[in-house]
## 1
Amino acid sequence: MSRSTGTTDDDVSVRMSAGLPGAHPRSPRLPAHLSRDGRDRLTGPLLGVAALAMGLMAGLFFAFDVSVMPGLARGDDRTYATAMRNINAVIDGSGPFALVFLGALAVTAWAAVRAFRKQQRPMGWWLLAAALCYLAVLALTMGINIPLNNRLADLGRPGPSTDYSVIADFKGTWETANIFRTLLCLIALSGIVRALLLHGRATPRPGNGSVSSQS
C-alpha cells in the first residue's frame, strides 16, 4: 500500500488500465547530479579524473628521478645542459602537460569542496589533504625547479659559455626537489584513492537503499 495516497496496488492497476488520473505513481524530483536510483553521477567521474591527473604527474616526476636525471649525469656538463634545456623547452610548450599540471589541483580541490558541501566529511578531508600536498608540489616547482630551469636557459647568453656551475645545482637541489615532488604526488594520489573507496562504500546500489516512490 502506498503511504502517501492510501491507494492499493490493485487500484493503481485499475486506473492504469482505464487511463484515469493517478494511474502512474508520482516520482520524487531528484537533484541534477543524482541518477534515478539515487546514485551520484558526478563525484565518481570527478574522483577518477583527479586520480588520473595525479597519477600522470607522479609518473612524470618519477621518470625524471629514475631515468632522465641519472642518464644525463653520465654525460659531460655541456651535454647535460643542452639535453635539459631541450627537455624543458618541450615541456613548457606542451598543452597536455599544462592541462594535467594545473588540472590535477583544480579537479582535486573541486571534489573536496563538493564532498564538504554534501556533508561527506571523511572523503572531504582526504581530498583536502591531497590538494594541499599538490599545492606543496606547485610551491616546489615555482620556488626551486623553475628558477633553476631559467638559469639553465640563460646559460651562455648572448654567446657560448664555459661556466656550467649551474649543473651542480641541478644535480643537487633540482633533483632533490623533484624527489619530493614525486613523493608528494604519490601521497596525494593515495588520498584520492582513499576518497574513491569511501565514495564507493557510500554509493547506494540498485535495490539496496535506492530512491523509490513507494514504501
## 2
Amino acid sequence: MTVMQTPTAATEETGNGRATRTTRNTGNGRSTQKAADGRSSAETGADLAGGDACAAPPRHPRPDGQDSYTISEVVAFTGLTAHTLRWYERIGLMAHVDRSHTGQRRYTNRDLDWLDLVGKLRLTGMPVADMVRYAELVRAGESTYGERYALLESTRRDVLSRIAELRDTLAVLDRKLSFYAEAGRPYEAERAGRAERAG
C-alpha cells in the first residue's frame, strides 16, 4: 500500500538571514535541503507553487559563494549610509556581520536580504524598537513564530489604516483639482482672447 505524503516545509529564520536551512518533503519520499536566505519557504522563488515572483528575494549583485561585499558596496546597493549600517549592528537590528582578516566588514547576500526586509519594515512606519524586537525574535528561533506573527499583524493593521487615510486624502485632492480645472477654463479662455486681440 502506497502512502501519499503531503509536501511540507520547515524553515528557521535568523536575525541577519544567516545559515538557515529548509528541509522540504517533495511528496515523492525524497527530502531536499536548501538555504532559505533568511526568508520562509513561502517567500523564496524556488518554493512558490504559484510562481509568485513578487515574493521572491531581490536579485543579488553576485551569486552565492561569491557574495562578499564591502560596506561601501552595500552603501551603493542599498542607499543606506555607512553610519546607519554600523548603527544597525550596534542596536541589534543586524546580529552579526562577518569580518575579513583585516577586520573590515564583509556582507553577504543574506545580509542584503535582511536589509531589504528592514527597509520594508521602515516604510511601514514600524518603530525602531519594534524592528529590533522582531530581529531578536527571529534570532531566538521557531518558538517565537507566534510573537513574530502578532508583531507583523499589528504592523499590517497600521499600514491598512494609513492606506485608508491616504485614499481619503487623495479623494480630497482629486476633488480640489477637478474644481480648479473647471473654474480656470473661462479665465484661460478670456486671457487667450485678450492676447489674440492684442496681437
## 3
Amino acid sequence: MAFEVQFPDVALAVQNVIANQRLNERSARQPDYAAQVAATTTVVKALAETPDSVLAKLSQGVLQLTGADSAGVSLFGRANGNRVFLWQAAVGLFEKYLGAVVPYEESPCGLVISTDKTMLMLNPGEAYKTAAQVQPPIEEVLLVPFHVNGQAVGTVWAISQGHKKFDAEDARLITDMSELAALAYHVLTKMGDLELLNKAVQLVAEEQLQFPLAAAVRPVTDQRTVETITD
C-alpha cells in the first residue's frame, strides 16, 4: 500500500505537516483480525439496532483498534454557501468537541476531501488554525475519506495527542472502517426524518447545512443543539 503524496500547489505550511512517507517507513505491527471482526460486528449491530449510535460506535472501534487518543467522523457540507465540516462523532480526548462545525479550509479534512487521499499529518496545528486550538495538542492525525455514490462525503480520523505513532496497519484499519462509515451514512440519510437521526446529518447529505457557521472549534455537549451555534 503506497502512501506518498505530493501536492506542489498546496500552501507550504500544509506541505510541511504532511508525513505520508512515515506510513511507508515505520514498521507496521501485525494485524489483529479477531479484534477487527469484533469492532466491525459492534458497528453493524448498532446500525441495525441503535442507528443513532453507529458513528460513535465506529469511532470507538477506531480508537480501540489503533490505540489512538481520539477518533471520530467528520461530515462534509455547506453552511450559507460556505464549505464546512461537522464533527458528527468524536470519542476519546476529542469528545469535548463533538458537534463542532469548522470551515473547510481550516481543517485537515479539507485536503483529504479535495485530494481523495489518505493523509498523515504531524503537528497539524502548525498549518491549521482549528487544529492549533485543540488541547492537548495534536501530535499526529491520520485521516481517510469515505464515499457515497462515488463522492467523498466525509472522513474517518484518528488522533495522537501523546506517544502513539501511526503506521500502515493503522491506515489499513481506518480504511476498512471507513467502508462502514459510508454504509452508515448512506443508511442514515435514507431514513428521512426519523427522530433518532441528527437533523444535521440529513442536511450534510444535501450540502445545505442550515445553521450559522462557527468561526472556530466550539464544544457542543448535545448533538441536537448543534444548529444553535452562533458567534
